[in-house]
Design goal:
Number of helices: 5
Largest sheet: 5 strands, mixed
CATH topology of the largest domain: Helix Hairpins
Radius of gyration: 30 Å
Shape: elongated
Oligomer: single chain
Structural class: alpha+beta
Number of strands: 5
CATH class of the largest domain: Mainly Alpha
CATH superfamily of the largest domain: Stage III sporulation protein AH-like
CATH architecture of the largest domain: Orthogonal Bundle
Strand order of the largest sheet: 1-2-3-4-5
Distance between the termini: 89 Å
Strand content: 15-25%
Order of helices and strands: HHHEEHHEEE
Length: about 160
């Protein structure tokens, strides 16, 4: 104990600087933990999904829309995937033109309720099951929740 008191008396400034340094290191560690580690504990979507429980698409409604799509003559297979506020509708066509795919997208859009159309973004992807040379497919369309139209990717030749 005497050695410690002697060291303190001979090196007061050094001990004071060590105390300040330790305090600063603890302060920086706390700030680092709060800033970086605290952010990993939050939800991936933040507050963007507020209200989704009021407009959630049930599995039966999703299956109803999927069966409507697969009942069409030109459709080979399709799937619907919902991630957050985006509904991904991937459709593989046996044959058809761009107009057929766009008309199918409009018909599918009519199957959603107004609340679902106003809350979810809908992403359409149309592709042919067989590769055809000089085909405009894959064709992609997107409907934002606050818009009423579907925006399409630029089609070859148009």
């Amino acid at each position: 104990m005497k050695k410690l008191k002697g060291f303190y008396r001979n090196n007061r400034i050094f001990c004071f600087l060590i105390g300040i340094s330790l305090f600063c290191i603890l302060l920086m560690t706390g700030a680092f933990l709060m800033f970086f580690v605290g952010q990993t504990k939050t939800d991936t979507y933040g507050n963007r999904l507020n209200g989704i429980e009021n407009v959630e698409i049930s599995a039966s409604h999703k299956d109803e829309i999927l069966s409507f799509i697969t009942e069409q003559e030109i459709v080979d297979k399709a799937n619907i995937n919902i991630k957050g506020k985006i509904i991904y509708i991937n459709t593989y066509l046996k044959s058809g033109k761009v107009d057929d795919a766009q008309n199918l997208a409009v018909k599918v859009l009519e199957k959603f309720t107004e609340d679902e159309k106003n809350f979810y973004d809908i992403n359409y992807t149309f592709a042919l099951t067989t590769e055809v040379e000089d085909s405009p497919f894959p064709l992609m369309g997107y409907k934002k929740s606050d818009k009423t139209i579907i925006s399409w990717t630029k089609v070859n030749g148009e």
